[in-house]
Amino acid sequence: MTTLEIRQAITAANDRLAENLRQRFADYGVLVLNLIASPGAGKTALLEKTIVALGSRFTINVIEGDPYTRLDSERIIHAGGGGVQINTEGGCHLDARMVSEVIDRFDLADTDLIVIENVGNLLCPAAWDLGQDVTVVVTSLTEGTDKPLKYPETFARAQVVVINKIDLEPHLSATAADLKTNVRTINPDMSVFEVSCLAGTGLESWHHWVAEAIKTKKGIRGHA
Ligand SMILES: Nc1nc2c(ncn2[C@@H]2O[C@H](COP(=O)(O)OP(=O)(O)OP(=O)(O)O)[C@@H](O)[C@H]2O)c(=O)[nH]1
Ligand SMILES: [Mg+2]
Ligand SMILES: [Zn+2]
């Protein structure tokens, strides 16, 4: 077997597990988001805001992927969400087997939304299907505007981009408008939200999108 064949066999096994997960999520009408970003872009900050805004209307559970610590799942629980930690022990992405191993810790019948915070990395997480409905990339202005061009596969595979830290625009040469242009160059159909998790700007439209997506998924329960 060549290296390429082994790699294809591994991702094919992952895709089968991910399809099983997708069917289970569909059976319960649970919306699943796969959150991908560079380290420090604001994935956990966005989740904290989302849980505070929507936690009284919906049951939100979070799977936290992190190389070593429990820091993010502690933040999620503090914000009022259900949190399960996967430590990859240095691994650079989550895979469907890891998600399958922890999913029984949630009561899917009493879950409206699962968000999987992937390991902070723009390179490979997007290649590993986790059974999600939607892949969301969080990218922040402090990373510069060229990340969609440098990591095109990740942006091409996503359906939604959240541009975070727009409060810092006055201090940076990067602008949200330029970043959005580069996002649309790679993926013209992308839904783009511009937010500041620190200042709270722009989050209403994001929360509205999440709430509508949850309701839509509940309505088509059972059909993966
Ligand atoms: N100025 C500013 N800082 C922010 C904003 N959102 C998050 N931060 C800060 O950015 C840092 C990283 O935020 P996190 O939410 O931990 O980012 P993350 O993507 O979850 O990071 P990892 O899980 O380590 O990859 C923290 O110090 C946050 O306070 C924002 O909108 N504006
Ligand atoms: Mg985090
Ligand atoms: Zn990886």
UniProtKB/TrEMBL annotation:
Keyword Cell membrane: no
KW Hydrolase (keyword) present: yes
A Pfam family reported for this protein in Swiss-Prot or TrEMBL: cobW
A biological process from GO: protein maturation
Residue ranges constituting the CobW/HypB/UreG nucleotide-binding domain according to the UniProt record: 34-193
UniProt KW keywords: GTP-binding, Hydrolase, Metal-binding, Nickel, Nucleotide-binding, Zinc
InterPro entries, sorted: CobW/HypB/UreG_nucleotide-bd, Hyd_mat_HypB, P-loop_NTPase
GO molecular function list: GTP binding; GTPase activity; nickel cation binding; zinc ion binding
NCBIfam families: hypB
Family: Belongs to the SIMIBI class G3E GTPase family. HypB/HupM subfamily.
PANTHER family per record: HYDROGENASE MATURATION FACTOR HYPB, HYDROGENASE PROTEIN ASSEMBLY PROTEIN, NICKEL CHAPERONE
Name of the protein: Hydrogenase nickel incorporation protein HypB
Organism: Desulfosarcina widdelii
